[in-house]
Design brief:
The complex is a heterotetramer of chains A (338), B (324), C (408) and D (83). By secondary structure, chain A is of the alpha/beta class. Helices cover 42% and strands 9% of the residues of chain A. Chain A has one domain: Thiamin diphosphate (ThDP)-binding fold, Pyr/PP domains (Rossmann fold, 3-Layer(aba) Sandwich), CATH 3.40.50. Chain A has eleven helices and seven strands. A five-stranded parallel sheet of chain A has the order 1-2-3-7-6, sandwiched between helices. In chain A, strand 4 and strand 5 form a beta hairpin. The longest helix of chain A has 26 residues. By secondary structure, chain B is an alpha/beta fold. Chain B folds into two domains: 184 residues, Rossmann fold (3-Layer(aba) Sandwich), CATH 3.40.50.970; 128 residues, Rossmann fold. Chain B is built from 14 helices and 14 strands. The longest helix of chain B is centred in the N-terminal third of the chain and has 15 residues. Chain D is mainly α. Chain D is 58% helix and 0% strand. The chains are: A alpha/beta (338), B alpha/beta (324), C alpha+beta (408), D mainly alpha (83). Chains A and B meet through helix 5 and helix 6 of A and helix 3, helix 5 and helix 6 of B.
Chain lengths: 338, 324, 408, 83
């Protein structure tokens, strides 16, 4: 069993105005509470199938997505509840989708691994490891060909790096200088396989460089660093420099999915990484900089819990899609063709 | 009025027209640009439409088919050319798990208006890895349409409605047809939903598609000389099968032979036979027969390849056996 | 009181076994705290509590296997005191909502069976094949299958002797209607069988004139010592002779069978002579005299008489109808000089006897008048050749010249 | 037994074998077997019926004398008379 020792927790002043900082903190807490409730509802049998939680990695999605524009395209993976929420999706629609209810964002057809939202240009979760990468390249190609300002951000894990799709997509994007931001959330494990047991080259930025693609590395637990680096990267891509690769070094505090016994890592390692947890370290830095009081934290935590309870109530009250609609939308009805 | 045209020129004309009429249309695939297309379908396009819209790709079928899907999601109308169905196996994940699935799985939010063209079939001594006929695999997948243009008219006419279709359309072009010449009527517009009776008859219905159509017509000619009137039905659309036309032809002839270059087990022929059994059971005077490729990796040597593939003589024999 | 239930522990897991409690009565439990370790089919897993409170009672025991949803422990919510004497039994109640009660799937639209084109009757292939074999005329049948299609069962019912439908009419009228219906049905059955025979069986014909002087004088002498009721007819002699002759010509006694693609002769297991019996109001049935070669003339005569009576009364057993291995038709004393019959499929031969009559007969240079019968053989050229057929008739002739040996 | 009584018995026996016969159309002086379709089996059963009802022996040798209905009745009358 290899050890991945956690560095010192993120620290230092937060160079943001208070309301912006609290907005990001609130988003992280909303994700955390939503994911905890999802775990509970899975245990209660309300959510079934597979469920991959984002607890521990919140800083990456919140920091990165707040550095992008609503017009940008987002392609994600099956660990995408946090991304969907920060992108602006209603928590009730997410919870209802995990319940399989008709009121879910995909009418209960996708479930936890396939959240879609046309309004926020979230082109889905994807249960195929690396499945989203070629799609992101295509979206980038369409954007470039239609001279649009939007860029495409593609989130994927360290596991996807081993797929052929990773090699083919990065090469295509670099070859055609497409406006694609490759956001690799390296949480050190591809399901139960530590990265050093899957990759001959574990420095992912070196991989990206082999396609002549500029690459940046950032502490995925430090929301300040994540946000600033992503903002800079997005500007370069938007300016037409071509694709860019960002490696967010992060860690998930819970099992790969519900449930695995986590035989592949030591409990001590998890505890060690928890000391670098994104929420409590950010709160501490804000408090130290007089940008957050305990009451304010409790208030935003309470509002997060209220939002979660409302989302659960919305999902519980949801209905099942009628069987008559089973075959609806296998094809696109003529009237609402794109 | 009509004019003489080869299958290749007809498809080339169709693509040229699509690229000219709609700026969202672009062609992407291996050697479609500088090389002019492996089978010269896009010769001269690069010079005329430029590298943005005639994109040579690296040998990354999963990558560029996925990119085609993404571009379609992004508002373009891509034509992705996969050199042959044999290489498309590398891109099957993107076609099955993304292209075919997006519309339904997203609860109707996203459509994928994409056309994928690929060559198929054997007969040119390319040996097992380059001689597959796997249309049946694609015709199995809900969410996409599958076409098999076998005539000059269809080669010219099918691309336009395929590009207009909001969902993915896969077009199989049989390698043996490219040099075939024929008359193209002035009004060549066609649908992409129905089968067509290419030759009327009353004693037996020979149901086939793509590269096997010329073989079926040749067999019908031989049978006519023996006083057997064979009807030849060109499926044209492999998903969604035009069951009504198939059933009507069986109802007229009461006997049917299905010709399909795929291997018989779990083949498209098997599906056509099931449709006949479900919809025209009481019309049958004899069990439906089929002429498929032998269940063997298609061999290189000419005599072996010919023995492995459906041939007019095998079709004639099947009909004679049936009429007893 | 808060019930702590065994949570669902994975997509493919319905129950778990408690390995270890991580808390004890009186401990306070915080949200997300691991309270137990449970073994699933895959592996041992830490189970956390999502509710907060103090442990009031641990219900599940170590090693207990239980379905998901079983109440494992009871917690007191913050500030709640234990109600006196309450001993909430931990009844295992799967909390997980049963699979959503969803209305039964709309039945997939059964593919509408396309009704046959007008004018084209809907007849199942099995029915078509059986009708041809049994010589049942399909046009006369109304189908009971889907959409009025004629099924195999419809044909089988038509092939077996039919109970004639009763109509409220006088007895005589009813009998007449029955008779007419039966005769009409019979005519159609015979027509179908005979046309199939001519279509499929390449007949060849051979004939032989057989002098019966010795045979008839022997018969008359035999009848003289017999009571009238046991009196023998010449037919009995002829049938016995045919049966004896067939023992040396098995290729005339059996069936032409068509089984999955290959067809061929199947020799009869016994010599069962189908005796053509005409019905009084027209029509013909050929029930079988089973094992004729092994029976005495007296037995044959009795069985023949009984067969004729039951045939004319319409009460034949179905086995008698279908077990003949060859047919013998005898025109009797009202018949013509000779008869060359049509083989009854699937048999492969038919023996015909004309009227026994006085005929001029050359006998070593002189001319005599003798009772003579013309015996004929129609046979299936796929199975035997004229040469063998002729030898059979010659054997028949010799047997009839030694009548005394036939009565064994 | 009188002639007509014997004739009645003969006709009853005939009907039991050939129920479709129109008895009143029968001509006594015409060959019986040309008016009624009786094969050798029927003829034997007809004579057997007379033998059982009238207890009269009819040897095969006498068959040639029994051509018309009249022949049959007078033959029986003679046999009965003598008995």
């Amino acid at each position: 069993m290899t050890d991945h020792h956690a560095a010192a927790p993120p620290a230092g002043p937060v160079p943001w105005k208070k309301d912006f900082a609290l907005k990001l903190l609130a988003d992280m807490v909303r994700i955390r509470r939503m994911e905890e409730k999802a775990a509970e509802m899975y245990g209660a049998g309300k959510i079934r199938g597979f469920l991959h939680l984002y607890i521990g990695e919140e800083a990456t999605a919140v920091g990165a997505l707040h550095a992008l524009s609503p017009e940008d395209n987002i392609v994600a993976t099956y660990r995408e509840h946090g991304h969907a929420l920060v992108r602006g999706m209603d928590m009730g629609a997410i919870m209802a989708e995990m319940y399989g209810k008709r009121e879910g964002c995909a009418h209960g057809r996708g479930g936890s691994m396939h959240l879609f939202d046309k309004a926020t240009r979230l082109f889905g979760g994807n249960a195929i490891v690396g499945g989203g990468l070629p799609l992101a390249v295509g979206l980038g190609l369409a954007g470039k060909m239609q001279k649009e300002q939007r860029i495409t951000a593609c989130f994927f894990g360290d596991g996807a790096v081993a797929e052929g799709a990773f090699h083919e997509s990065l090469n295509l994007a670099a070859l055609w200088k497409l406006p694609v931001l490759f956001c690799c959330e390296n949480n050190l494990f591809g399901m139960g396989t530590a990265i050093e047991r899957a990759e001959s080259q574990t420095d992912l930025c070196v991989k990206a460089a082999s396609y002549n693609m500029p690459a940046l590395k950032v502490d995925g637990m430090d929301i300040v660093a994540v946000h600033e680096v992503t903002k800079q990267a997005a500007q370069r891509v938007r300016a037409g420099e071509g694709p860019l690769f960002v490696e967010y070094q992060t860690y998930r505090f819970r099992a790969h999915s519900m449930f695995d016994a986590e035989l592949y890592r030591q409990k001590a390692e998890v505890e060690e990484w928890k000391t670098r947890g994104p929420i409590h370290t950010f709160s501490a830095r804000l408090k130290a900089g007089d940008k957050l009081t305990e009451e304010e934290f409790l208030a935003l935590d309470a509002s997060a819990n209220a939002e979660v309870d409302a989302a659960v109530a919305f999902a519980e009250a949801g209905t099942w899609e009628p069987l008559e609609d089973l075959l609806k939308d296998v094809h696109t009805p003529a009237e609402n063709a794109p | 009025m009509s004019r003489k045209l080869s299958y290749r020129e007809a498809m080339r004309e169709a693509m040229h027209e699509a690229l000219t009429n709609d700026p969202r249309v672009f062609l992407m695939g291996e050697d479609v640009g500088m090389y002019g297309g492996t089978y010269a379908f896009s010769k001269g396009f690069l010079a005329e439409f430029g590298p943005e819209r005639i994109r040579d790709t690296p040998l990354s079928e999963l990558g560029f088919v996925g990119a085609g899907i993404g571009a379609a999601l992004g508002g373009m109308r891509p034509i992705v050319e996969v050199m042959t169905v044999n290489f498309s196996l590398l891109a099957l994940d993107q076609i099955v798990n993304s292209a075919a699935t997006f519309r339904h799985m997203s609860g109707g939010q996203f459509s994928v208006p994409l056309v994928i063209r690929m060559t198929t079939g054997a007969g040119r001594q390319l040996a097992a890895q380059h001689s597959h006929s796997l249309e049946g695999w694609y015709a199995h997948i809900p969410g996409i349409k599958v076409l098999a243009p076998a005539t000059i008219e269809d080669a010219r006419g099918m691309l336009a409605p395929a590009l207009r279709d909001p969902d993915p359309v896969v077009i199989f072009e049989h390698a043996a047809l490219f040099n075939m010449e024929g008359e193209l009527p002035d009004d060549w517009s066609v649908d992409i939903s129905s089968a067509k009776v290419r030759r009327a008859g009353k004693d037996v219905a020979i149901i086939t598609h793509g590269g096997s159509l010329p073989k079926a017509l040749a067999a019908a000619e031989t049978l006519a000389a023996e006083g057997i009137s064979a009807e030849v039905v060109d499926l044209r659309v492999l998903r969604l099968l035009d069951t009504a036309t198939i059933a009507a032809s069986v109802a007229k002839c009461h006997r049917a032979v299905v010709v399909d270059e795929g291997w018989r087990t779990g083949s498209l022929a098997a599906e056509v036979m099931a449709r006949i059994m479900e919809n025209a059971f009481f019309e049958l005077d004899a069990p439906v027969a089929r002429v498929c490729s032998e269940e063997v990796p298609i061999p290189y040597a000419r005599h072996l390849e010919e023995a492995a593939l459906p041939q007019p003589e095998k079709i004639v024999a099947a009909v004679q056996e049936m009429l007893g | 009181m808060i019930e702590f239930k065994l949570p669902s522990l994975g997509a493919d897991m319905d129950e778990g076994t408690l390995l270890e409690w991580k808390v004890d009565v009186g401990d306070t439990v915080k949200k997300g705290q691991v309270v137990a370790i449970v073994d699933t089919t895959k592996t041992a897993v830490d189970v956390e509590s999502w509710q907060e409170g103090t442990v009031h009672r641990l219900i599940a025991e170590i090693g207990q296997k239980m379905p998901v949803g079983t109440v494992m422990a009871l917690l007191l919510a913050a500030g709640e005191t234990a109600p006196a004497g309450v001993d909430a039994g931990g009844t295992p109640r799967p909390a997980s909502e049963a699979a959503p009660a969803v209305p039964a799937a709309a039945p997939a639209a059964a593919p509408a069976v396309v009704a046959a084109a007008p004018g084209r009757r809907m007849i199942s292939p099995a029915a078509r094949k059986h009708a041809e074999e049994k010589g049942v005329d399909l046009d006369s049948l109304t189908g009971t299958g889907p959409h009025g299609a004629v099924t195999l069962e419809d044909v089988e019912r038509a092939a077996a002797p039919r109970p004639v439908p009763t109509v409220e009419k006088s007895a005589a009228e009813k009998a007449a209607v029955q008779q007419a219906a039966r005769a009409a049905d019979m005519r159609k059955t015979i027509a179908a069988a005979m046309s199939r025979s001519k279509r499929e069986i390449p007949h060849y014909y051979v004939a032989e004139d057989i002098p019966l002087a010795k045979a008839l004088t022997w018969l008359q002498a035999a009848n003289a010592q017999r009571p009238m009721a046991e009196r023998l007819l010449p037919a009995a002699l002829l049938l016995k002779a045919v049966a004896m002759a067939l023992k040396r010509f098995p290729e005339l006694n059996g069936y032409w069978r068509q089984e999955n693609g290959n067809a061929g002769f199947v020799p009869g297991a016994a010599i069962n002579l189908g005796v053509a019996i005409s019905l009084r109001q027209g029509g013909l049935i050929a029930p079988a005299l089973l094992g004729a070669d092994g029976k005495s003339l007296t037995q044959l005569m009795q069985e023949l008489t009984d067969l004729v009576k039951r045939t004319r009364a319409g009460s034949l057993r179905s086995s008698e109808m279908s077990e003949a291995t060859i047919t013998v038709t005898n025109l009797g004393d009202q018949g013509s000089n000779s008869v060359f019959g049509v083989i009854t499929p699937p048999q492969v031969a038919l023996v015909g006897f004309g009227r026994i009559a006085e005929r001029p007969w050359a006998d070593n240079g002189g001319l005599k008048v003798l009772p003579v019968v013309t015996a004929s053989l129609s046979a299936d050229h796929r199975v035997s050749d004229g040469h063998r057929g002729a030898l059979f008739l010659i054997e028949l002739n010799e047997l009839l010249q030694r009548p005394e040996e036939l009565d064994k | 037994m009188t002639y007509s009584e014997i004739r009645a018995v003969a006709l009853a026996t005939l009907l039991s074998i050939a129920p479709e016969v129109e008895v009143d159309e029968l001509r006594d002086d015409r060959t019986l077997r040309s008016q009624v379709d009786l094969d050798s089996m029927d003829w034997l059963n007809f004579l057997l019926g007379l033998h059982e009802k009238l207890k009269v022996e009819i040897p095969e040798a006498d068959y040639a004398k029994l051509i018309t209905l009249n022949d049959v009745v007078t033959y029986l009358q003679k046999k009965l008379g003598a008995a």
